[in-house]
Amino acid sequence: MKRVFPILGALTGVLLSxxxxxxxxxxxxxxxxxxxxxxxYYHVPSAWTAFILFFINFFASVVYLxxxxxxxxxxxLVTAEVGVVFCTVVxxxxxxxxxxxWGIWWTWDLRLxxxxxxxxxxxxxxxxxxxxxxxxxPLLAAVLAVFGALDVPLVYFSIxxxxxxxxxxxxxxxxxxxxxxxxxLLINWLAFSCFAALVCWSRYRLEVLRREVDExxxxxxxxxxxxxxxxxxxxxxxx
Amino acid sequence: MSYLYAAYIATWAIHIAYLATLLRRxxxxxxxxxxxxxRIEEKN
Lengths: 239, 44
Hints:
The complex is a heterodimer of chains A (239) and B (44).
Chain A: H1 4-26, H2 40-67, H3 70-102, H4 110-131, H5 137-148, H6 151-161, H7 179-223
Chain B: H1 2-43
């Protein structure tokens, strides 16, 4: 495993570099928006990757609720954390793209608002996991994740069923895209998916190690001989 | 073009910041393990 990780890391680095070249140089310039449309090759793959990670989080949470499997709990935590990173990218690159095209940074349009709500749900999930020390935390987090995942299809289909400021989907839903642009989009999605998988893998190993250390420290504290405590009587004398 | 570069730089800044937090957590954990090993050796 120790040898496989650097090789996969190097391959992902090459793929990301190639995807960047394709997005900035090889992809054709869009006629209406010009070069700023190339933000699309980072914005859309990041959104798709975040959705996939949140769905994995949903399934892992369901598995945890049914079988109480620790591995499923770790997978849920890891995918939520990396999903929030990708969702943050979506929420940052979206306004940077909107400013020159729409003339505004943000609007309370359905797609944008639901994406912000999705981000807030998973940030609250991570805050719960970080600051709650109760033994019930994984269970509560799993329930929150199951309800939070309901927002993912709402975000995705909001532009199918409602008239919004956000553009219509380029794949499915009646949208169309130049074949070369689609090729560059899919290359970028593949590159970001490989990157997300590697980051998840590292985070998973870190979390497993973290839990092992915590368990060992707890065991050490239990096995440590206790010093006899002196009781104090109400009159102040020990005994 | 500046918006395009801003978006690409922001994307990588977010990813690199997250990777840096992972590295920091890993370093902290490694220090904890080293400290624990030191305590065990001291007892023995």
